[in-house]
Structure prediction request, 265 residues.
Amino acid sequence: MNNLPVCQTLLLELHNGVLHITLNRPECRNAMSLQMVAELRSVLAAVRDDRGVRALVIGGAGGHFCAGGDLKDMANTRTQGSSAHRDLNRLFGALLQEVQHAPQVVITVLQGTVLGGGFGLACVSDIAMADHQAQFGLPETSLGLLPAQIAPFVVQRIGLTQARRLALTAARFDGNQARRMGLVHFVEHDPQALAERLDEVLAHVLCCAPEANAMTKKLLLASAGQPSDELLDQAAQWFSEAVTGAEGVEGTMAFVQKRKPGWAI
Prediction:
């Protein structure tokens, strides 16, 4: 573990070739701050060429996976202009790309809140398992924003038809619905069953040669086509325009003030 970075927003535990990464901001349901994005990227970089690390298991502390982007970061960025919002948004897209292309097998364990950026992380995992009561959703449009960096990965994961319905309604759904649409592979009814399923999946992963897995993953992703840098750059620009526009200001303020935005009926 000596080569792993010191993190304030993540808990790291390396055991038998499996690195367990726990998003650790339970006071805000593990909302993804700029610091958390940076720390996740540094962890991925540290293990990228280490074939002794066979799998990455990403979960969340306090009974939740991730409530999405940290709106406090957005509020703090507002005074810096639209380019700062664009850059902040694009950093999350870079994280999603790096998780997607990690040579290790990436497993997400999804409990409680799985929204926005948390939803995006689930979409770039190789294997996803969820509690049946986990709550999934893309709430961005209800805040006057866009799921800018997440959308291409959602489309790739569950298809355009389902992505359109979810993104354009901000609808919430549970683990069983997530399995039916192909977002997750396994759904369990209690934490013990979820832990046992994780052990079972890891046993299978560890039967596979690490370099063969890395190259097979690379081949599979190339076969399916990838969200491009150009698309994610454009999406970040659209996001910055949305977050500084009238709807974005009203939506985020309404969220902070715990009221409905002006357009909600």
